[in-house]
Amino acid sequence: MQLSASIVGFFTCFLATASATALTFELTPNEKACFFANTDQKGLKMAFYFAVQSGGAFDVDYKVTGPNEKIVLEGVKERQGDFVFTANEPGEYRFCFDNEMSTVSDKMVDFEIAVENEQRAQLPSKQGTTPEQTSALEESIYKVSSQLSTITRNQKYFRTRENRNFSTVRSTEKRIFNFSIIESLMMVTMAGLQVFIVRFFFQGARKGYV
User: Fold this and answer.
1) Do the Cβ atoms of 151 and 63 come closer than 8 Å?
2) CA-CA distance, 42 to 78, in Å (whole number)?
C-alpha cells in the first residue's frame, strides 16, 4: 500500500513539472492567429505540435518567435509539425499561424504547446528499500511515461489522417452532388431545346402548306 502511494506521489510530482495547452480552432482566409506561452526560466523544453485537420490543401504557414523577436521556428505551407526546442531565454514565446495564402478556404488547425522541465522528481523512498530498487522503479515509471507519450502521438497522427480523409470524402461528395445538379440541368435544357426545334420545324412546314 505504501509502495502504491509512493508511485502515485511520484506521478503527481512528475505531472507538476509540465504544463500544456491543446486547442482546435478555425483559421479563416487571410487571417493570422497567434498564441502565447511564458517561461520563467531558461533551459526549459518547449514542445510544439500542430496539424491541419481540414480545409484547402491541408497546409498553413507557421512561425514561432521568442523574446526579443528572435525567430525560433518557421515554415511555409506545412501540413503538420512536431517540434521540441530549448527556451534559451525566459519570457514570452509567440506561436503564429498564417492563412493569408488562401482566399476562400477555412482551415481547421489542431495544435498543442507544452512547457516541460527536465528535472526529474525524487521518488519518495520506502523504509527498508535500497537505492537500486528505487532507481529501478523510477526508470520503469519513466519508461511507461515515454510509452504513453508515444501512444498519444500515434493517436494524434491517426486522428489527423481520419479527419483529412473525412474532409476529402465530404469534398468529393459535394463535387459529385454539384456535378449531378449541373448534369440534370443540362439534360433538361437539351430536352427543352429539342422540343423547341421540333416545334419550330413543324410550324414552318404548316406555313409552307398554307
Assistant:
1) no
2) 28
What number is the average pLDDT over the span 113-120? Answer: 70
The distance of Cα 51 from the centroid of its chain, to the nearest Å, equals 3
Sign, CA dihedral 66-69-71-77, equals positive
DSSP letter at 28?
-
φ, ψ of residue 5 in degrees (nearest 5): -65, -35
Q: List, for residues 58-86, the tens digit of each pLDDT value.
A: 899 999 999 989 999 999 999 889 898 99
Q: What are 131-136's contacts with CB under 8 Å, separation 24+?
A: none
Inter-axis angle of helices 2-15 and 131-209, to 10 degrees?
50
As a whole number of angstroms, the distance between CA 92 and CA 123 comes to: 32
Task: State how far the Cα of 156 lies from the Cα of 48, in Å rounded to an integer.
Answer: 13
Q: Tens digit of pLDDT for each residue in 92-106?
A: 999 999 998 888 888
Residues 6+ apart with CB under 8 A from 161: none
pLDDT at residue 71, as a whole number: 93
Give the mean pLDDT of 153-182.
84
Residue 30: φ, ψ to 5°: 60, 25
CB neighbour list of residue 209: distance below 8 Å, 6 or more residues apart: none
